[in-house]
Hints:
The complex is a heterodimer. Chain A is α/β, with parallel strands linked by helices. Chain A is built from seven helices and eight strands; from the N terminus they run ββαβαβαβαβαβαβα. In chain A, the strands form two sheets. Chain A has a six-stranded parallel sheet with strand order 4-3-5-6-8-7, with helices on both faces. In chain A, α1 crosses α2, α1 packs parallel to α6 and α3 runs parallel beside α4 (119-126). The longest helix of chain A has 15 residues, at 177-191. Chain B is of the alpha/beta class. Chain B is 39% helix and 18% strand. In chain B, the strands form two sheets. In chain B, strands 2-1-3-4-8-7 form a six-stranded parallel sheet, with helices on both faces. A two-stranded antiparallel ribbon of chain B has the order 5-6. The A-B interface holds A 55, 58, 60, 82, 84-88, 90-91, 93-106, 120-121, 123-125, 128-132, 189-190, 192 and B 20, 40, 42-48, 50-60, 77, 79-80, 82-83, 86-87, 172-173, 175-176, 179-180, 183, 185-189.
Amino acid sequence: xxxxxxxxxxxxxxxxxxRPTESNGARLVDATVNCPHMSPPLWALNTCLGLHAAGSxxxxxxxxxxxxHVLAVLRDRYPDVQTTIATREEEAFGIAAGxxxxxxxxxxxxxxxGLGNSINALTSLLVPYQMPMLVLISMRGxxxxxxxxxVPMGRAVERICHAIGLQxxxxxxxxxxADTVALVGKTAFMTRLPGVCLLPRRxxxxxxxxxA
Amino acid sequence: xTRLEATRRLAATLADDPVVASLGHPAYDLFATGDRDTYFxxxxxxxxxxxxxxxxxxxxPDRRVVVLDGDGSLLxxxxxxxxxxxxxxxxxxxxxxxxxxxxxxxxxxxxxxxGADLEAAARALGIPATATVRTPEELDRAMARTRAEAxxxxxxxxVEESAPTTKPPQDCTYIKQxxxxxxxxxxxx
Lengths: 212, 189
């Protein structure tokens, strides 16, 4: 996506944008997603720092595009963290429940749309049995969304979590992610309930800066 | 054989193996054969017993983890078999009580009564060790093989519905705490 002659700048989030030049006009190119030559975005590095600091060494997940950055960081920099992909979010929570019973402190990663696939596992297994885990939700349907089909669940995520007895904490910025994820995870494991940390799109897929 | 007879037969082959029982009649029958601290009874999350067993088998690789599932429950979460086949925990044994009905909800037919073959599905999804058993002796032999041959195992046991008359403890945190203590795991703090 990067065109010759364009000047590149690496933002704090690892986000590359192409500044307007004569050849590309004023078009801003979002090159955040899946560029293997780029250093990982700060929010993804911090997510891994946070879950590791919370004592989690096993991540069960259903992938989404922003989470691919977290998975790449885990693969490249955290050999002590095992990852397992599930076919469906509800299954991921079941596997994580078993990991907890076996002595692990699991993390479950999913996209907000997958919360809808998880409700029965949360309400009839994790909450009544008081099984703690760190739950990282990559948000869709919040500010920056382009797909209308993602909006209804995105808007409902917090209210659904609260309705079934789960606290949610939204990270404020890429810089804030490590501390927030670690705190939510530690709180979950100390209080023995799933702790939900929301990763909003303005952090995971930051819009290109508007250049005058 | 009825599910209760099969469960009694299977329980006799267990030492201190942790067992995850699917909600409803599989859990009730397991309790009826003699409660043990190593039994994890689920009271909800239909379909997830095999997933809980997978996580437990990953976390406790030196223990043989036995899951008692139902045909209706496993049909809800066939993806679990694909994941187990991929992760390939040698120590996971999923026993499916296949009676062709949703026993806990009044005996409505499941798809296995109309042609669905769960052992074939397990094979197709990559499970390396499978069996279908119809008698107590076949169940004994299959359970003996799970000690000698690497899993993950899926054993489909064709059973008749039995009518449980007792229920396991209903306090979920009690079930969890005593189970974790029985397998020597400390809760997080």
